[in-house]
Design brief:
With 364 residues, the protein is an alpha+beta fold. The chain has one domain (1-12, 29-364): Peroxisomal Thiolase, Chain A, domain 1 (3-Layer(aba) Sandwich). The chain is 30% helix and 23% strand. It has eleven helices and 15 strands. The protein has helices spanning 47-57, 69-74, 88-103, 127-135, 150-163, 189-194, 256-266, 269-278, 295-305, 316-319, 326-336; strands spanning 2-4, 11-13, 30-39, 43-46, 78-81, 112-116, 140-144, 169-176, 204-213, 218-226, 234-235, 253-254, 287-290, 345-352, 356-363. The strands form five sheets. The protein has a five-stranded mixed β-sheet, sandwiched between helices. It has a four-stranded mixed β-sheet with strand order 10-15-14-13, with helices on both faces. Strands 1-2 form a two-stranded antiparallel ribbon. α4 links the parallel β6 (112-116) and β7. α3 (88-103) crosses α4 (127-135). The longest helix has 16 residues, at 88-103. Mean pLDDT is 90; it is low at 1-23.
């Protein structure tokens, strides 16, 4: 496949393989988006409310955060928190039902369900089993986990399975509940700073129904890279063999500045490679989807990359960092707003703790 330059959308031409018999070469099979859905909880929590919760929980230490510090440092005005009885699988199921309705399919039409999230209901079994049971599906299931890039990696896996014709229709879904890991009781400013990444978090679910396409639409290109030496920058250590029962590690810990510096160190090469290999620029994409960690970091990224602000779907201000649900939710909102239609091109740029960076291009 080659993509020749175009001012607004790339023109796709297929290279057919040489044939030894008198047969017609089959078009390339890709995973195309048949339906999208998202779900956010009803409870809206402002940054002022976050500061109030910290002050109340930290009363024994006499610590009160500086008024306005959360909004100033994160750019998040408000976010959504799930109710205690709502699970990661419930949010994924709510989004999945909307995606299936959008695609015009039922649970019995699914061949595979991939739960791709940094959150989970249980360590065992895979949360995809709970999603499948709640949907009443009969599909094969498994989980994919890679922090905030989980959904992108789930789409990458689904695309590979569809291209090799192992499955025809796959549901990729996520339910993110990082609010469960926020530390409210802090001793002082240094302790709050260590926990600060959690104050950007919001909860959400998102889903996409992917199906085999031979018409040139679907996932066109993907590339991922990792710098795993930075894995300690952002962690939630509970539930594994390292800290199976230590309550201290049930809270998210991270250094936002170090995470930003790590992404800067990794550099834009993966994006440069994408443009070089596909012969495209930002001008060839109708919408550019970013994972959004904080408002200031997003603004800095836009300034450095040169992406026009009106090309993105900004969600950080009102939803916060919703982890792997961020990018599929943005695509759905762009579709609902009429910014994407059949034949539109989307560029996805994913950032995840660990750290990893992903690039994916899709023709709707």
């Amino acid at each position: 496949m080659t993509i020749t330059p175009g001012r607004t959308r790339p023109i796709i031409r297929h290279r057919t393989r040489p044939v030894l018999t008198r047969s017609i070469a089959q078009p390339t099979v890709r995973a195309g988006i048949a339906g999208l859905g998202s779900w956010v909880p009803e409870l809206v929590v402002t940054s002022e409310e976050v500061e109030r919760r910290i002050a109340e929980a930290s009363r024994e230490h006499g610590f009160v955060p500086k008024p306005g510090v959360v909004l100033e440092r994160t750019g998040v005005r408000e976010r959504r928190y799930k109710q205690p009885h709502e699970q990661a699988s419930d949010m994924a199921v709510a989004a999945a039902r909307r995606a299936m309705a959008d695609a015009g399919v039922e649970a019995g039409d699914l061949d595979l369900i991939i739960f791709a999230s940094s959150s989970q209901d249980l360590v065992e079994p895979a949360t995809s089993h709970l999603v499948s049971a709640k949907l009443g599906a009969r599909a094969m299931v498994f989980d994919v986990k890679n922090a905030c890039n989980s959904f992108m990696n789930g789409m990458q896996v689904a695309d590979s399975l569809i291209r090799t014709q192992q499955y025809r229709r796959i549901l990729v879904c996520t339910g993110e509940a990082p609010s469960e890991a926020i530390r409210w009781n802090v001793r002082d400013w240094a302790h709050m700073k260590q926990s600060f990444a959690g104050y950007t978090f919001g909860d959400a679910g998102a889903a996409a129904v992917l199906e085999a396409r031979r018409d040139g639409s679907g996932i066109q290109y993907s590339d991922f890279t990792a710098a795993s030496r930075h894995w300690e920058i952002c962690t939630l250590k509970t539930g594994g063999t390292m800290h199976p029962r230590d309550l201290e590690h049930t809270y998210f810990a991270g250094d936002g500045n170090s995470l930003r510096d790590a992404f800067v160190e990794l550099g834009p090469q993966i994006l440069v490679d994408c443009f070089t290999r596909t012969h495209t620029t930002f001008d060839d994409y109708d919408v550019v989807i970013f994972h959004q960690v904080t408002g200031p970091f997003l603004d800095q990224t836009l300034a450095v990359s040169g992406v026009p602000a009106d090309r993105i779907v900004r969600t950080i201000d009102t939803l916060g960092n919703i982890a792997s649900a961020t990018m599929p939710l943005q695509i759905e909102r762009a579709m609902r707003a009429g910014r994407l239609e059949r034949g539109s091109n989307v560029l996805m740029i994913g950032l995840g703790a660990g750290i990893s960076v992903g690039i994916m291009t899709i023709r709707i």
